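Regression test attached.
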Amino acid sequence: METQEETRPWEQMVALLDSDASVDAADVRDYIETLAPGETARALSRLAEDERLRLFSRLGPEYSADLMVLLHDAQTADIIEEMPATDAAAILQEMPSDDRVDILGEMEDEDADAILAALEPDDATSVREMLAYDPETAGGMMIREFLAYPEHWKISEVLDDLRANRERYSDFDVQYAYIVTEGGALSGVLRMRDLVLARPDEAVRSIMLPEPMSIPVTSGLQELWEFFHDHRFFGVPVVDDTGKMLGIVRRTAVEEATADRASDDFLKMSGVSGGEEFRNMPLRERSFRRLSWLSINIVLNLIAASVIALYTETLDAVIALAVFLPIISDMSGCSGNQAVAVSIRELTLGLVRPFEFVRVFMKEASIGLINGTVLGFLLGTLAFLWKGNPWLGAVVGGALLLNTIVAVVLGGLIPLVLKRFGYDAALASGPILTTVTDMCGFFLCLSLATAALSKIAM
Amino acid sequence: METQEETRPWEQMVALLDSDASVDAADVRDYIETLAPGETARALSRLAEDERLRLFSRLGPEYSADLMVLLHDAQTADIIEEMPATDAAAILQEMPSDDRVDILGEMEDEDADAILAALEPDDATSVREMLAYDPETAGGMMIREFLAYPEHWKISEVLDDLRANRERYSDFDVQYAYIVTEGGALSGVLRMRDLVLARPDEAVRSIMLPEPMSIPVTSGLQELWEFFHDHRFFGVPVVDDTGKMLGIVRRTAVEEATADRASDDFLKMSGVSGGEEFRNMPLRERSFRRLSWLSINIVLNLIAASVIALYTETLDAVIALAVFLPIISDMSGCSGNQAVAVSIRELTLGLVRPFEFVRVFMKEASIGLINGTVLGFLLGTLAFLWKGNPWLGAVVGGALLLNTIVAVVLGGLIPLVLKRFGYDAALASGPILTTVTDMCGFFLCLSLATAALSKIAM
C-alpha cells in the first residue's frame, strides 16, 4: 500500500543534500516551499539524525528556526540537543523569546546550559530569568518584545520612534503599543487604529485606553485560558505585583500550550505515561512508557478478579455465569465512563463545581435507574431464554441493574472528588471507576447467584 | 457539602429581579459584573426558563447578546428558542454575523425561520446566504463585517473613511483593511501600522502587502485549523472561486469550533451519542443519548462472550479460567487502546498518513512482543503460583502474550483503516478494538486450555 505515496519528501530532501555542492540552500528551500507545512513536519521527523544536521546547517539559522516552529516543542528540543551548542544557539537566537524558552525548558539541564553559554549575553540573561518561571504560567509563556512608551510622550514622538525602528519592530506582533508610567507601571494601551486617526500634537495619554486589563506574572495556564476564552484579545500584558509591565502573553502561545496539554492528557488517559510518545522514539522508551501503566493496571485487574476466585464453588455449579461476568464488567464500565465524561466536561466548562455532590448524585442516580433497568431487563431476558431458567435471568439482570446504578453514580462523582482534592480527574477517574465497578459487579452477580443457588444450579 | 458555596449567583439574580420595580437593568448588570465570566455562565444555565426570560428582557438586547457569548452555542440556541421571535431577533441583531449564524444553525428549522422573519431584511438575507454553507466551512464561519477599499484610492481617502465611520467600525475587528479590484477580487492587505507611517498622498496600492493569503469559501474546519496552525494571523480573507472577497474567518472562530468538536469527540468517544449532554437537559433526552450507545455495546459484548459459551466444558473442568478471562480481556483492551491513542494523535499531527500500514505494523508488533512477553510472564507466573500447575500458567500467560500482540497491532492499524475509508477514527476505534480483542482473547485462552485439558484439569 506504501506505493500510493509517489515520492517521500524526506528522501527527496536527502537526495538534494547528497547531490553536488552546486545545490545550495535556495534549492532546498524551494523544494520545501512546495510541501504543505504538515508534510514538512512529517519529513523532518523521518530524517536520520545526521541528515537532519546537514539539512539545518545548509539552510542557515533563520530558515531553520522558521521550520522548527512547525514541530512539537519536545521534538524540536530533541533535534536541537543533537547539534553543536553554537549552531543550536544561532537557531534559537532567531526564535521569539517564548518559543526559545519553551524549547530550552524541554531539554536536559546540561544541554540547555551549554546552549545558554553560547547565546548572546543579554538573551541568555533574559532566558534564564524566564526559565525561573513555571513554564505553564504567564511568566514562562510571555514574550519580552513589546512596544512601551512613556505617558508624557506626544503622538508625534511615538510616530518618530515607529519610523526610526521600523526594521527592528517588524518582527514584533504590533497591534498595540503600551503606555507606562515613569516607574514602568502599565497605565494604558494605544491601538494602532487610533494612532492612525490622531493629531500629531496630541498627548498619547489622551487617546490611550486607560486601565487596561493585565495578568499577574504568576497566573497559571487555566487562568490564561479563561482570560482568552472571555476576551477576544490577541495578547495580554503581564505585570508583576507592583504593576510593572514585564511582557505580553500572546493568545497563540496559550492556545498551543492548551492544545499540547489536551493532547498529553489524551495519551495519559489512554495509559501512555508522561503523555508523550512519538513512533520515532526509541523502542525501549516507548515500551517502557506503556508498560508502566499496564503493570499498575494488571494489579488493579487482579484485585477485581480476586472477587471471582472467592466464588469458585458457585461458578462450578453454574458455569453459565462465566459468560456473563465479562459482560457485566464491560457494560458497567461503559455506563460509568459516560458519566465520567459528562462530569469532566462540565468541570472544564465551569458548569459544575467540585463540591456539588448532591446535584450530580441526583442527576446520575435517576439515569442509572432508567438505563440499568433497560439493560438489566435485556440481559436478564437473554439469560432466561438461553438456559430456560427465570432465576438465572433474575440474578444476571438484577446484578447488571444494581451495578449500573453504582457505576453511573460513581462515574459522575469520582471526577468531582478527584478535582476537589487536587488530583487530575481526566487521568485517574477511568482506572478507579473500572476497578471498583468490576469488583462490585462480580460481587453482586456471584453473591446473588450464591443466594439463589438451589434455583439456578442445573 | 453544598454549604461551602455561600451565595448562589442564580438565586441572587432572581432576588434582584423579584425586588420592586425600582431595581433597574443597571443594578442587575452591576451585580453580574461582580461575577467571573464562568460564574455567570453557570448561573445562566441554572435559572428556570421563565426567570431567564425575565432577566434578558430586563437587561435589553445588547447586554443580553454580550452575556450569551459566554455560553455554548447549543445552550444559547435553547435559550433563544424559548423567547418570542421579535425579542430573539433583537438580541441576535447585536451579535457578530458568525455567532448569529452558528446559533440559528443549532435551532429547529421552524424556530429559526420565525426569528429570520423578525430580523432586518438585509441581515436576514445575509444570514440565509450564510446558513446555506456547511457550518464547519469557511463560508459558514466567516464574518461579513470587514473593511475593503478600492485599489486606486489614496491613503487620505482611507483615513477620511475611517474617520467618518469611526462609530460603525468600532465593532469590527480592525487590524487590517483589505484592498480589492473593481470586480471585488482581493488584491492586497493594508496593515494599520503601515497606515500610521504612510504619507496621505500615497496610493494604497503602494503600501499594501500584495498577493495576500486567502482561503476558498468551501474550505473545511480541518484546513482552517491547519492554516491558523501554520500562520500566526488573526483572520484570513475568504474568497469564492472567482477570487471575490466574501468575508473573514477569525482565528477565534476556528479555535472555538475546533474546541467544540474536540469536546464533542470526547463525549462521543465515551459513548454519549451526538456528543452533546448538559445535566440541565431533560432526563429522557440524557438517558436516551446514553442508551443508544449502550445498546450497541451490549450486542458487541454478547458477540464476544458467545465465544466463552462454546467452551463451557473446558470451563467446567478448569473453573479457575473464569477468573482469568476478564483479566485477559481488560489487559488486552488497555494495551490496544494505548496504540489507538498514539495512532490517532499521530494522524492529527500529520506525522503518519493513513496508508502507512507497514510502518505502523512494524513499530507496534515489536512493542506488542515485548510488552506481551512481560505481561504474559507475570500473569502466567501468578496462575502457576495460585494453583501450583505450570500448564495452567503456560495457557494463561501464552494467551495474554499472543493476545497483546494482536491487540497492539490492531490498535495501531484500526485508526488508519478507519481514516482511510473516511470514518471517524476517534469514535469507532475503541469499540471495534475491544470487541475483536475480547473474542480473540477468550478464544486463545479457552482453545489453549482445551488442547492442554488433560494437564490442567484437576
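Expected vs. actual: identical. The longest helix of chain A spans residues 357-387.
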